[in-house]
Structure formats: C-alpha cells, structure tokens
Amino acid sequence: MSTEQAFERLPDQATADESWTLLRTLLGRQRRRFLIAASELDLHPAQAGALLQMDPDQPRPMHELAALLACDNSNVTGIIDRLEGRGLVVRRPYEPDRRVKRVALTSRGARLRDRLLEQVDQPPSGLERLSTTERRQFRDLLRRVVDEG
Q1: Could you give all domains of the chain from N- to C-terminal order, each with its CATH number?
Q2: In sequence order, what are the residues at sequence separation of 6 or more whose Cβ sits closer than 8 angstroms to the Cβ of residue 19?
Q3: Which among 22, 78, 139, 148 has the fewest CB atoms less than 10 Å away?
Q4: Residue 109 and residue 84: Cα distance in Å, rounded?
C-alpha cells in the first residue's frame, strides 16, 4: 500500500474506530441496565440471560440453551437447577430422544421473564432524539453490519 493510499484509508479507519467505540459504549450501558434489572429481580445474570433466551410457548433443549448462552452444557445444568429450584422452569423429556431434556418456563417463570423484558427491552433513550428517517437509517445500517458478520 502506498503512503497516499494509507492516508486515504486513515479517515475511514478513524471513523470505523470511533463508530465501534460509540457502539461499545452503548452496549456497555445496556449491559448495566440488564445487570441492574437482573439484580432487582433477584436473578444471577446467567439466570436472567437464560430466561431471556426462552420462549414461553416453546420448550428449549438444554444443549441449545448452552449454545445461545455461549457456555458449557454443565454450566447450563447449574443455571437450570437454580431456576427450577425457584419454580421458574421445569425440565421435560423429549419423546423422540429421551436423553435430551427440554426446559420450559412455568407460568411464574414466564411472568418473571416478562418483568425482565419490561426493564431491558426498551430502546435506549438516545434513539428518541433521532427522527423517524434517522432511526430507519440507523436500523438499516446496523442490519447490514450484523448480516455481514
């Protein structure tokens, strides 16, 4: 790469670096919101994360939860043990393969999940400062970044 090409790339790289820093800041703030909400509901963050990955109408296999939470199956077992002990989930055998256990939310678990979602599923307040057109642009740009990853 020539020096001229390197200088042409620098502003683009600086913009990408600044964009990533801003996005990390936004994600960090959202993470804090999540941690506060989990604490207020007397949930360990891993338990709250598991609840958020569950669909109230569709039991999820334990190994699938492990993949979604990016942890070992043994870690998910401990998380589910604690949630089950609180009456928030139940384990059910999977009839086609009885070695597989699926986890289902109880009605109490579904209510707690809804309360958690009320606290963490709100868009950041900064988005309110954007016009409708800017929100669409932001969404479309994020979609492009996510889809290419």
Answers
A1: 3-124 (1.10.10.10)
A2: none
A3: 148
A4: 9
Please give the pLDDT value at position 6. 52
Give the strands of the sheet with 60-61, arranged side by side: 60-61, 97-105, 89-94
Long-range contacts of 129-134 (CB under 8 A, 24+ apart): none
Residue-wise pLDDT tens digits, 69-120? 999 989 999 999 999 999 999 999 878 877 888 999 999 999 999 999 999 9
CB atoms within 10 A of CB 92: 12
Q: How many CB atoms lie within 10 A of CB 41?
A: 15
pLDDT tens digits, one per residue of 22-47 = 999 999 999 999 999 999 999 999 99
Distance CA 69, CA 136 (A): 29
Amino acid at 102: R
Tell me whether residue 86 is exposed, middle or buried, using C-beta atoms within 10 angstroms of its C-beta: 0 to 12, 13 to 18, 19 or more: middle
**What letter does residue 130 receive in the DSSP assignment?**
S
Give the span between the Cα atoms of 149 and 136, in whole angstroms.
Answer: 20
Can you give the pTM of this predicted structure? 0.81
